[in-house]
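Kindly go through the entry underneath: sequence plus C-alpha cells. Please state briefly how this chain folds according to its C-alpha cells.
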Amino acid sequence: MNRITSVVIIPLYEVRGTTSILFTKRNQKMKHHPGEISFPGGKVENGEGYFEAAKRETIEEINCVVTQKLGTLKPVMTLVSNHLILPFIAFIDIQKLTLNKDEVEAVFSTPLDAFLKTKMRKKRFSHRKIFITTPVWDFQEFYAWGATGRILFDFKNWLKKHQI
C-alpha cells in the first residue's frame, strides 16, 4: 500500500511555559489496536484534505481546538492493520478537552524536554509468522510502540532538525 489512508496529529500544548505532548489510549473495545497508546487521528474521508481529516478526528476524539500546524512527518505504515499514516505536528488548546469514551479511554502527556531525554529501545515480536522489530518508548505512566513508536522516532529527529 502506498496511499495515505489515515492521519494523526502529534498534539502539543503549553501550560505555564512547559510544552507537553498529549497521547491517547484507545478504548479497549476498538476493532483495531484496542488499548494501545496513540495520537488522535483516523481515516481520511472521501474529498477531505489530510490536515482537515486530522483536525476533524482530533475534535471527534478529544474535543480540542487545533490552533497551529507546525509540520508534517513522513508517512508511517502500521504493520498489523495495514494503514499508511500521515503524521502532523500541531499545537492544541486543551481548555475544553473532553474524551469521546467510545474511542479514547484516557489521555497521558509528557513534557517535551522529558521526551527529548527519553531513550528509545527496540523490541522484537512475532506477528503472523514473521518477526517485527519496533521502537518502544517508556514513559512514567505508559509506553508507546509500533506505529506510534516509529512516529515518535521521526518526531524526535524533526525536533532536533528544527532545533526545538
